[in-house]
Design brief:
Blueprint: H1 4-11, H2 16-49, H3 54-57, H4 63-113, H5 116-120, H6 124-166, H7 168-175, H8 177-215, H9 217-222, H10 226-252, H11 254-278, H12 284-298, H13 304-325, E1 347-355, E2 361-370, E3 375-380, H14 386-393, E4 401-406, E5 409-410, H15 416-421, E6 423-426, H16 437-441, H17 450-459, H18 463-467, H19 486-500, E7 504-508, H20 516-529, E8 534-538, E9 550-555, E10 558-563, H21 565-571, H22 574-583
Parallel strand pairs: 3-8, 3-9, 6-7, 7-8
Antiparallel strand pairs: 1-2, 1-4, 4-5, 9-10
Helix pairs in contact: 1-13, 2-4, 2-6, 2-12, 4-6, 4-13, 6-7, 6-8, 6-12, 6-13, 7-11, 8-10, 8-11, 8-13, 11-12, 17-19, 21-22
Length: 594
């Protein structure tokens, strides 16, 4: 398995020049930040050794002149340190924002390409946690964590190298704690990784709970379940708190332990360095530099826990985001184009067998032919497979056996966007987006004019109630259209399909939520709407489909009856039984199972 950091670097390969430039600026910033410590040692030697100092050997013999040179050099170094800090800070932050933006967009785009079964197996909160929390965690890491890591390693290498070069006899004392610190860091890192993975998982669960409850707030209120749901949120939040607590307990113990190891190195340097200075093995300036700089060598290890904390959180998030991007797309597009103006609308279900994952077969070797520009009705008991046919036609799911043809072409070979563009679908579960009435009607037909929107609304018998809304077509419908009634939402969905003007129209319980008067008005409009297009109407209200060219009755995944309304009544089977129940016919035969 590829390490998540490598995956992240591969993902950002287009920004490698920016990464390298930010890295160079970060390293130079730290080098210039460390340089004044060296100058302090040189300045001490100037005061103590005067004409024999390092600066004097470079050609400046006057003591005041030496101090002036060191002062100007210090001013230049501090200016460069500030300049490179500006550069690296801006580069890393811009890179973090860019990667965050593109990663979220790529993750969301990939998510849209996945089949419906993926969404059915996962909660909305879990997916939101990846798209928001995890990607934001990566942004925070790139924003500051990467620079902190580079600063740490630059400090260790530069200061450690200076110790070896200037005072090799004392260097081993200062560096003695480092192997123990690194060993402890690796041990804690291995133990922190699974704890932070658990934290991210718990974050997904609490997000899922909150998203689910906010979506179902009306149900919670109607069943007075506020306390119950609060307790469930409490349970999830407590689990998240405890998971974080386990990670914090380990990471918080790191600093005190490292502090004790660091003080050993500092005291040893103070003692052995002083002895070396007394024995004239090193200069007084060098001794002062060593005592001062040893803290800069060892104290960064104390912040290693915070760096490690940020890194592990980022890697846990990277695994989740990359896991989403690695999810294979089960339903791939074909390469056969299907121009909209060439579609006749001839639909053929040929020997179809289909089952949802881990469930019994919903459709069993079903065959059904829908001639071009005809209107057919499909009826049957709940669970008989009516809506599944529609979802298979739209390729929301992939069939296990058989073929579905449009104009004689297997839909699996068709360009997926072309396929869905030629089908207008009015679902029984109407979804409206938070926005205006006009925006919801024109959804998918974004370039249409206001006049065309109004015309579609009139055909769907929606114009009258829309004009009675506070802002008419500019009225905000609320999330999922919660400000509108079920019948109003359904009429907007019909208007949306009308505006799309597809050659194939699917009405899946399109009038189930409207009253009888509105249904009658919509029925009149449907006569005109369904002309010159293939129409598939799925209905529990048989009055909606009684005038269809052909009606198919389904039972347990198979077509068991077909014919016109009159022919099916005369047959006296499932359809006749359903009609008798809905029409209130006292002669209904109870032996017929609807």
């Amino acid at each position: 398995m590829v390490h998540p950091l490598l995956r992240l670097l591969r993902y950002a390969k287009n920004y490698r020049p920016q990464v390298w430039l930010a890295t160079i600026c970060t390293i130079l910033n730290k080098i210039f930040d460390l340089a004044p410590s060296y100058l302090i040692g040189v300045a001490v030697d100037v005061v103590v050794q005067k004409e024999n100092s390092l600066v004097a050997r470079l050609g400046v013999t006057d003591t005041v002149g030496q101090l002036a040179v060191l002062s100007l050099l210090t001013l230049l170094i501090w200016s460069l340190e500030s300049l490179f800090q500006f550069f690296y800070d801006r580069l890393w932050r811009n890179l973090a924002q860019t990667v965050q933006h593109e990663l979220r967009l790529d993750a969301y785009s990939h998510l849209q390409e996945l089949e419906l079964s993926y969404f059915e197996d996962r909660s909305t909160g879990e997916m939101l946690s990846i798209l928001n929390d995890d990607i934001n965690q990566l942004e925070r890491f790139l924003d500051s964590g990467a620079a902190r890591i580079l600063h740490f390693f630059t400090t260790v290498l530069v200061v450690g190298g200076s110790f070896v070069a200037i005072a090799p006899s004392v260097a081993w004392v200062a560096m003695l704690p480092i192997p123990f610190i690194i060993w402890g860091t690796m041990v804690i890192q291995r133990r922190l990784a699974p704890r932070y993975a658990d934290v991210r998982a718990k974050a997904g669960l609490i997000n899922s709970r909150l998203a689910n409850n906010l979506s179902g707030i009306a149900t919670i209120k109607s069943f007075t379940a506020e306390r119950y749901e609060r307790d469930r949120v409490l349970t999830e939040s407590e689990a998240y708190r405890r998971s974080n607590g386990r990670a914090i307990a380990l990471s918080a113990a790191f600093i005190p332990l490292i502090r004790m190891v660091i003080v050993v190195g500092f005291v040893a340097t103070l003692f052995f360095g002083g002895v070396a200075a007394l024995n004239n093995q090193i200069t007084v300036g060098t001794y002062g530099f060593l005592v001062f700089i040893v803290q800069q060598l060892l104290w960064p290890f104390a912040s290693l826990s915070e760096i490690l904390d940020s890194y592990q959180r980022a890697m846990a998030s990277t695994r989740r985001v990359m896991g989403l991007l690695d999810t294979p797309i089960a339903i791939t597009t074909g390469d056969h184009p299907l121009p909209l103006n060439t579609v006749r609308g001839d639909v053929h279900f040929n020997d179809i067998t289909f089952a949802y994952s881990d469930r019994d077969r919903v459709l069993k070797r079903l065959s059904l032919h829908i001639p071009p520009k005809s209107t057919i009705g499909i009826v049957g008991a709940t669970g008989s497979g009516k809506s599944t046919l529609v979802k298979l036609l739209l390729r929301f799911y992939e069939i296990q056996h058989g073929k579905i043809l449009i104009d004689g072409i297997d839909i699996r070979t068709l360009n997926l966007a072309d396929l869905r563009r030629c089908i207008g679908w009015v679902s029984q579960d109407v979804f409206l987006f938070h926005g205006t009435v006009a925006e919801n009607i024109s959804y998918g037909s974004f370039s249409t004019s206001h006049e065309e929107i109004v015309h579609a609304a009139k055909l769907a018998e929606a114009d009258e109630f829309i004009r009675q809304l506070p802002q008419g077509y500019d009225t905000i419908v609320g999330e999922r259209g919660q400000k509108l009634s079920g019948g109003q939402r359904q009429r907007l969905a019909i208007a949306r399909a009308i505006l799309k003007d597809p050659p194939i129209l699917i009405l899946d319980e399109a009038t189930s939520a409207v009253d009888n008067e509105t249904e009658a008005a919509i029925q009149k409009s449907l006569i005109m709407i369904t002309q010159n297009r293939t129409t598939i109407a799925i209905a529990h209200r048989l009055s909606t489909i009684r005038h269809s060219d052909c009606i198919y009755a389904m039972d347990r995944g198979q077509v068991v009856e077909q014919g016109t309304h009159e022919e099916l009544l005369a047959l006296g089977g499932i359809y006749a039984g359903l009609w008798q129940v809905q029409s209130g016919d006292r002669l209904f035969n109870p032996s017929v199972n609807p």
